[in-house]
């Protein structure tokens, strides 16, 4: 097998996986399930609550007390984060590959990413100022608080764009795309 065939085989395999993923995201069943805002918004709330609970579980693990409870919270909410995060991605149709999106979808996703970066920057600045004020400007910092804060900032940066699109996109119509009434 030549290197060109090997690369072509992997690219063909990757294209097949992308096609299956695209078919799942664009399927009629998924579109109908997440068509209305009323059904999408609880996903965003569940993701936010799960992230905060997950950070609390990390705090329990890092703090030393109630480690078993912390482990249970981390495992349960971690699974919930994975499931709900996947559903948010399906509901918002938020993808990392831009090549198959139209200009409007690209602009919406770019705007959501930019807003996510700005929100993360503000949250990081607020966390820094709060840490300075709460520590009394001393060298001592409760190290058990660092992992949950780091997780929440990372989760905010990762989850915010898709959650924003899920929350703000208008409800889809039941009509097929491309069918417009004049």
UniProtKB/TrEMBL annotation:
Quote the biased-composition stretches of kind Basic and acidic residues, using this chain's numbering. Answer: 10-24
Transmembrane ranges, per UniProt, are 42-62, 68-94, 115-137, 149-167
Write down the species.
Streptomyces cacaoi
This protein's record includes keyword Membrane: yes
Keywords, sorted A to Z: Membrane, Transmembrane, Transmembrane helix
Q: State what protein this is by name.
A: Uncharacterized protein
Q: Where is this region: Disordered?
A: 1-24
Classification lineage: Bacteria, Bacillati, Actinomycetota, Actinomycetes, Kitasatosporales
